[in-house]
Amino acid sequence: MHLAAAHVLADTAYAGTVDLSNRVEVRGRDTEGVLGVDLVDVPSARIDVTNRRWEYLFDYTANALLPDLELGVSPQLLQSADLGVSWRSRRVRIGVTEYASYGEQNSAYLLGGGPTAAVPAPTVTPVGGGTQLLAPPVTLLYGSSRTVLASQFGLSRRWSGTASIEYDILGGLDTPSRVYLPLAKGPRADATATYSLTEIDTLQTRASALASTATSAPCSPVAIDVRAGSNCDPSAQDGIVTETWQHRLSRTWTSALGAGASYVRLRLRDPQPYEQFVFPVGSASVERATGPVESRNVMHLEALVTPVLDVRTGLFDERGQASFDVSQRFRQTTVLGQVAAARSIESPLMQPATFFTASLEIDEELSKMVSLGGGIRYAWQEQGNLGTFSGGYVFGFVTVRAPEIRF
Predict the structure, then answer these.
(1) What is the DSSP annotation of 187-215?
(2) What is the model's pTM?
(3) Are 243 and 213 in contact (CB under 8 A)?
(4) Phi and psi at residue 386, in whole multiples of 5°?
């Protein structure tokens, strides 16, 4: 009886943390030869609550941007929030999470650009993934919603798997914004089965699918064989199957090699018939990871060929991509970097594009509450009738963190 009561208490007793921080960033920017000075304030709050079976998450971030301070004050605000709940047992984890954002965005300021601390594990990118091209440098009223039901499960000592379904909405929220970035929406599903061949080799089979429809708006100037001034309401579906072999080269190095095929249906407007294509999919990656999970040092190099859902046009574009990500900590100094490039391989309905981006950030932790740093970010792209667009900035920042609250 005492043992049963102890189990009940363990299942119902909750613990949690609250993390608060604020980052202030000053940028010296060059956009297409036009110089400017921007000020960015990024407050964030994260609350985690857990017990033996349940986890709850709330994460909020705001990007408050004062662009071109030398010309006056014209603020832009983009807000993002994540809200999730998940249940877990020894072999199963299932949860639902909502990711949402709302506010103003302008690619001229590369808001939200730069590296992140989380470097993905080597795998074939899911359907529609990959590098996204920047929208034209105009201020857009932007919003997104991503609702995900996801599960992880262990079937046996050798077999494990994942499954997820989601519904995505993203793009311009008013008519002027949709001229440059249509509002696209649709479902997505993904499932994997992973088998451990040996202690150092695994095989993963992955199947993914998505469908996307976009609001009617003037056709993008990069669309092929479209009459000027006409409207498009693109619709696209994609299904993909891949097989990936992952091999642990050593205690710290891992490689992965994947291949598969993708079936794509798409059209620019209703009631045109769908055009159908089969594209190859392939990936190769190598990764070095050291240190504990919560502060892991990672170097990740990946080459990828896959169809990408271009959010600016609502159409798929087969692209070759390569990227190098690094996240390294040296005592009190953290270095984050990324270099990525992409090029269209086959674009049946849109003009081919080329994209390059690079970023480097150095963060020096002065104490548990304060850190200073700086870096550089740059992006360049070229595509048919849109021509070229490039921009970059150097920046310095200070981050202040409140003491972690535990309860």
Answers:
(1) EEEEEEEEEE-SSSEEEEEEEEEEEEEE-
(2) 0.87
(3) no
(4) -80, -15
